[in-house]
Amino acid sequence: VVIYTSGGGENFDLLVHTCYAYGSPDYDREPAVKIPLIDDLGCRLKPKLMDFFHRTIETRDTGADLIAYSNLQAFKFPDNIGLYLTCDVTTCKGGCTEFCEDPAYPSEIIGVAVKPDQQNVCDLDPGAPQCGTTTQERVTATPFSCQDSNDSRCQ
Asked: From edge to edge, which strands make up the β-sheet containing 54-56?
């Protein structure tokens, strides 16, 4: 599962949270069956099915500023051929300050060099102009298959 941001610059972080798997595209209608995968702070609820979201600024030539990714084990719902995912994504200017407290949670962004004696300015002064701006969006994964596809993502 991959989520990316672009156009925000390097001062933004994101928290992927509140993820569910559904067996139907009508996930917001009753009686849709759903499985919670990630909680509201980004912690794994079903570690055998889905890993934490890792974040990286090593995006090569994708055009993204930040990429969040997680491994999802293949599974299906009985009597359904499709699998649908939703996750909430919070973007944070200056870094996200609330996240999963599990010691295994990947709190550092891959590719960001941090000196041991350097603290995040938002830890020192949460009211600073570059801190505290957050937005939240719901992201719905679009089903995608590499079978019989020439899409570059399948290479």
From this structure: 2-5, 66-69, 54-56
